[in-house]
Amino acid sequence: MNLRRFFAIFILVAALPVLAGAGLAAWTAWWAAGQQHLTGTVAGFRAAPVATTRDRVATFWIVVDLTLPDGQVLQARSTVSSNVWGYAAGDPIKVIWSPDTPDLVRVDSLVWLYFPAAVTAIPGLVMLAAILLVRRLVRRQLPAGSL
């Protein structure tokens, strides 16, 4: 196997998480476009069960009071638990709500919506950058036309 094929295989493997992250970002954009974007009020925080997190520190769900467009009032919790929310009880918060899961909301923030897609794609981007750098360094060491 020549070096060109060797690097091509590694580039393809490194591109898989990048493609997965792009697909997840596209699905998130499609999903968010079909849901209701509302502004609620932070009612408080509820400790997430230990089984839902890998952290050793306490993590919390945000509990949000919502008024739906039809006037119905309900309380829902965030789908993601965190210890770095930065909100206090009584703060207004933008959320995405779906009638499919009326007791859950997602924080309507680019950071929180696209965090899973970024975490999926970033390792692939780092691998691609490393492979391309190594390929460039190897190219300089070899005679012209061999790679």
By DSSP (H or I, 4+ residues per run), the number of helices equals 2
Shape: elongated
For the biggest β-sheet, the strand order reads 1-2-3-5-4
Task: Kindly name the structural category.
Answer: alpha+beta
How confident overall, as mean pLDDT? 85
Instruction: Give the amount of beta strand, in percent.
Output: 15-25%
What string, H for helix and E for strand, traces the elements in order?
HEEEEEH
| Low-pLDDT residue spans | none
Taken together, the total number of domains comes to 1
What kind of sheet is the major sheet? 5 strands, mixed, barrel
Number of strands: 5
Approximate helicity band: 40-55%
- Rg, alpha carbons: 22 Å
Distance between the termini: 12 Å
What's the structural blueprint in terms of helices and strands?
Elements: H1 3-33, E1 36-47, E2 60-67, E3 73-78, E4 92-97, E5 104-107, H2 110-141
Parallel strand pairs: 3-5
Antiparallel strand pairs: 1-2, 1-4, 2-3, 4-5
Helix pairs in contact: 1-2
Describe the overall structure.
It is elongated, with a radius of gyration of 22 Å. Helix 1 runs antiparallel to helix 2 (110-141). The protein has helices at residues 3-33, 110-141; strands at 36-47, 60-67, 73-78, 92-97, 104-107. The protein contains two helices and five strands. The chain starts with a helix and ends in a 6-residue tail after the last helix. By secondary structure, it is an alpha+beta fold.
